[in-house]
Amino acid sequence: MMQAHEEPEPMNDKPASAPNALRRFLDGDVWHSFCNSPVAMLAALIAFVCIFCALFADLVAPHNPFDLASLELMDSRLPPSWMEGGSRNYLLGTDDQGRDLLSALMYGARISLFVGLASVLLSMLIGVSLGLLAGFVGGKVDAFIMRICDVMLSFPSILVALLIDGVGRAIFPNAHDSLAFMVLILAISLTGWVQYARTVRGSTMVERNKEYVQAARVIGVSKGRIMARHVLPNVLGPVLVLATIQVAAAIITEATLSFLGVGVPPTSPSLGTLIRVGNDFLFSGEWWITIWPGTMLVLIALSVNLLGDWLRDALNPRLR
Amino acid sequence: MLVFIIRRLAQAVIVMLTVAFVSFLLFQYVGDPVTSLLGQDATQEQRVALRHDLGLDAPVPVQFGRFIGNAVQGEFGLSLRQGRKVSSLIVERLPATLELSLVAGLIALLVGIPLGVYAALRRGRASSQLLMMFSLLGVSLPTFLIGILLILVFAVWLKWLPSFGRGDVLAFGSWTTGLLTLDGLRHVLLPAITLSVFQLTLIMRLVRSEMLEVLRTDYIRFARARGLSDQAVYFGHALKNTLVPVITITGLQLGSLIAFAIITETVFQWPGMGLLFIQAVQFADIPVMAAYLCLISFIFVTINLAVDLLYFAVDPRLRIEGKVQ
Amino acid sequence: MTTSLLEVRNLRVEFPTRHGNLLALDDISFEIAPGEILGVVGESGAGKSLTGAAIIGLLDPPGRIAAGEILLEGRRIDNLPYEQMRLIRGRQIGAIFQDPLTSLNPLYTVGRQLIETITTHLPLNQTQARKRAIELLEQTGIPAAAARIDQFPHQFSGGMRQRVVIALALAGNPKLIVADEPTTALDVSIQAQIIALLKSICKEQGAAVMLITHDMGVIAETCDRVAVLYAGRVAEIGPVHSVIHRPAHPYTVGLMGAIPALDQEVERLLQIDGAMPRLNSIPSGCAFNPRCSQAFDRCRSERPELTSAGGTTAACWLHANQPGQEP
């Protein structure tokens, strides 16, 4: 039976060059969607402010809470400046050691962000590599990696993190601070890599069967090059969305671990540590010691989550 | 179908063995098994004798076999921290955690599903967008912070509800329940809400996105083209197709609830297994950690199996062809 | 003008996007008489499915009817509120979609879906509805209908499923069936059966059919009249015999010339250069003019109306000899 003439599909698998890509991005739907979404812009602003304060805490914070010499015990347990008994010197109040909470927030955020971002990067590295491997090589390697993914997925993240942390503690009972950090980052990153692996594996398998990849293999281009040059760019979109959402999850996991007392070492308090310390003063009415770090934590997590959500919608062609 | 069950059982056994192996490794190489079993104050002779009795000079696979044998009977030795038998500690604490998780799971389902359906059907309206905002908030609030906030508002400021412990419990054999006393119910409320928030938001988002997907399908379009009423389309067709994957995923999340109970129990000093585990991690109490691990994975594996069977019961496509997607 | 069952007048369907309004259907007009089978043919993207969707009132947002009217038995239906239109769907106008695999809810038995539809439109109780459902299945050629009524969709083959779909569409005894590519997703051997079934069952029930397809062979076999769509406009419309053997519009000529025929010796098939324009770059004047070998100045500046051209009606300046000529 006769068919009417069909339109040819445009080819769009070429890797883009940098300035072209930038122009296409600014013209494209993603940027447009961003400019049209007040929520996304607000979230980006909040995230930016938080990250800025965290990165440049040394310069921005009014006090240095770790400088023991600068602490005044007389100023301990002061409520926020707008309440009765507060002082303008300590905008958000002080804790039981006289540390300024606003400054402690910024330094704490720095630690939290550091651990969160490092974990996500490590997660991405592990997950993307394993995903590429599984998708490209296939066969038994693929089956094995997927089995591990299944098993890991059925365990909640907090348990995996706790376990690795606990084992680390048992193996190195008097660990150096940096070792403790590394164990923590490893623990958190192992909770999140599975998502990357699965997504990348799926995309790799789709790309692997496309003609341009098969052509490249016939010519003799090495598998590694094919994976890096062709498959990877096509996979970046979903990976980026995942990463954004995972940053928030990683920060929260770190905070939880620190709150439980098995996270960052006490000499480098993160927001979670600060919340734990403040928890003891809840019943005596000094709520600010725990609430401010909590608010900062939520602000960071929320703004990152909002950005991740917006990014996912913007990159999803079906929802446009 | 029988083939399917057998295959899944085999998979379950493999997972359990793997976990048991990890626990075994913990015992062998991280903690000192002799110390675990005898406690800290054993004499040198007792240690040597025990090493021989335990067959620690035997090849590793044999030791592993014995470990499995012990584990199946619930024998994990003594807690390093408390000196009591691990098994009795766990039996003592298990009901508290299970009750807390069940109540939290129920809250998450009973609130999450209707909210998700509402957000899908009223998509684009302000109320639904507000709901999605709140759901993001729910995912961005760590569980422990929710607990702290609830304690602050309801226990410290309003003084309506208690902030720690289980309250009055009734005992039935080795099982203790707090759900049958008013005091127990008052005590379980805040922790259960805290634990349920994360699940609730997940369920809500899942239901919403599943329902939106379903509403885009051809069969819904065809149902509309046949002139079926909105009620028939939404609640007859769309809802059932939405709930099938949702209920099964939620079942899997039950295990996750039990694990996340660790955090809630810490905040509320709830005397459950989670609190026990945290104290074990802080103390590097290997026997307790290993026992908790084995128990949790057993619960997980059982739940997964039950959920798979549930899927079979609900989706006719799987039943008749005997194939698994 | 005889009483037509369905009348579409100057229908315009547009999609507002941030690049501007995309006009997907531009001034479409045609009629369907009671019991008649009208074919609607054209390439992918010409607007055939959109026309069907607009008629049954299920245009996917943000698409919307921007202008024009759709009349069913003389009554306007394009501006009805959802609830009123819902009463017409299934009862007066039935619809069949392309993919039988996804048209049926996999979690409900075929019987439940049939009975539900029947009871929505006809005042029958459960037992009567079940009897009617079995009858419908038998009419559409499903063997052992009484047993198979309680089976699930995945237990039917592709062709059988489409028969169930046809049964569902006819459950409310509609006067018009909009069939959107009903055989495209089926095996070639099944296609003929389904088309024959559609034709016979509609004749029995006296239902008219709007058969949307890109397959000219099906059109030739089945339809009384055919409308050729191009870039959201009607290029030619007329009795099927005339359109196929004496096409007036150059596009239709090209379409027919591209079909290989067994009884002719042809060295090369006719090919129309170029491609149908995208919605955001439709040329001024006649939409076909860039690809037309007979185009002249007027074609590029003024858009032609449908005018009589021999046995058919075509939108082409080649055939509009005098101004004010009636279509």
Give descriptors for this structure.
heterotrimer, A: MetI-like fold, 0% strand, globular, disordered N terminus, B: 325 residues, mainly alpha, two-stranded antiparallel sheet, 2 strands
Poorly predicted segments of chain B: 321-325
Mean pLDDT across all amino acids of chain A: 78
Q: Sheet bearing the most strands of chain A, described?
A: none
What is the string of helix and strand elements of chain A?
A: HHHHHHHHHHHH
Radius of gyration of chain A: 24 Å
Tally of helical segments of chain A: 12
What distance lies between the first and last C-alpha atoms of chain B, to the nearest angstrom?
A: 13 Å
Q: Look at the structure and give the mean pLDDT of chain B.
A: 81
What percent of residues of chain B adopt helix (DSSP H or I)? over 70%
Which percent band covers the strand fraction of chain A?
under 5%
Extended strand count of chain B: 2
Computed Rg of chain B: 24 Å
Contiguous runs where pLDDT drops below 50 for at least 5 residues of chain A:
1-16
Task: Name the structural class of chain B.
Answer: mainly alpha
CATH class of chain A equals Mainly Alpha
Distance from N terminus to C terminus of chain A (CA atoms, Å) equals 36 Å
Kindly describe this structure.
The complex is a heterotrimer of chains A (about 325), B (about 325) and C (about 325). By secondary structure, chain A is mostly helical. Chain A has one domain (about 35-55, about 100-320): MetI-like fold, CATH 1.10.3720.10. Chain A contains twelve helices and no strands. The longest helix of chain A is centred in the middle third of the chain and has 37 residues, at about 100-135. Residues about 1-15 of chain A have low confidence and may be disordered. Chain B has about 325 residues and is mainly alpha-helical. Chain B is built from 13 helices and two strands. Chain B has helices spanning about 1-30, 35-40, 45-55, 60-70, 85-120, 125-140, 145-155, 180-215, 220-225, 230-270, 275-285, 285-315, 315-320; strands spanning about 170, 175. Chain B has a two-stranded antiparallel ribbon. In chain B, about 40% of the residues are buried. Chain C is of the alpha/beta class and about 325 residues long. Chain C has a domain at about 250-325. Chain C has helices at about 50-55, 80-90, 100-105, 110-120, 125-140, 145-150, 160-170, 190-205, 215-220, 240-245, 250-255, 295-300, and strands at about 5-15, 20-30, 35-40, 65-70, 75, 95, 175-180, 210-215, 225-230, 235-240, 305-310, 310-315. An eight-stranded mixed beta sheet of chain C has the order 6-7-8-3-9-10-12-11, with helices on both faces. In chain C, a hairpin with a 2-residue loop joins strand 4 and strand 5. The longest helix of chain C is centred in the middle third of the chain and has 18 residues, at about 190-205. Chain C is globular, with a radius of gyration of 21 Å. The two termini of chain C are about 10 Å apart. The chains are: A mainly alpha (about 325), B mainly alpha (about 325), C alpha/beta (about 325). Chains in contact: A-B, A-C, B-C. The interface of A and B includes residues 162 and 302 of A.
